[in-house]
Amino acid sequence: MIKMSRMGLGSRSIRRSKLQIFEDVLRAIDSGEYKPTRIMYKSNLSWNPLNKILNSMINLGLVEERDVKGRKYFFITEKGKEFLELLDHLKRMLAPAPLARFVEIDSLLLSPPKINGDYESFKMDALETVKPRIHTR
Q1: Using CB atoms within 10 A as the burial measure, which of 49, 75, 96, 97 is most buried?
Q2: pLDDT(17) > 50
């Protein structure tokens, strides 16, 4: 079964890869969460791992840190947005477009949907396989 993105969802039994954690943190920031505590909650991380991930992302140029009135805020950079676009593109290559953003790439690579003959049956099989639990604001 293909796992859906963890943002806004309950826990699951499989550990996330670094790639998935990076994606979750970037999506949290891209959705408007700029404060570290809000990013931590939205990306389902504890404080120390979040700080390590944010520092890595700053070093890679995916996120920038700004000091506003003595408080730290984090913003996604153009490079960070391009990173998310590339992930979405990879997912669209592996899953039906309407669901691609909400599918974890790790799950797609471990258990891809099967293609039965033509693309139309692939889309239907994949839609049946991917049962999204999409968190709406």
Answers
A1: 96
A2: yes
CA dist 104 to 45, 58, 66, 69, Å?
Answer: 17, 23, 30, 37
Give which of 78, 81, 95, 118 is closest to 1, Cα–Cα.
Answer: 95
What's the CATH code, domain 18-79?
Answer: 1.10.10.10
DSSP state letters, the chain: -PPBP-TTS---SSPPPHHHHHHHHHHHHHTT--SHHHHHHHTT--HHHHHHHHHHHHHHTSEEEEEETTEEEEEE-HHHHHHHHHHHHHHHHHS-HHHHTTB-HHHHHHSPPPP-SSHHHHHHHHHHH--------
Residues with Cβ < 8 Å from 88, sequence gap 6 or more?
A: 100, 101
Give the pTM.
Answer: 0.70
Tens-place pLDDT, residues 23-56 = 999 999 999 999 999 999 999 999 999 999 999 9
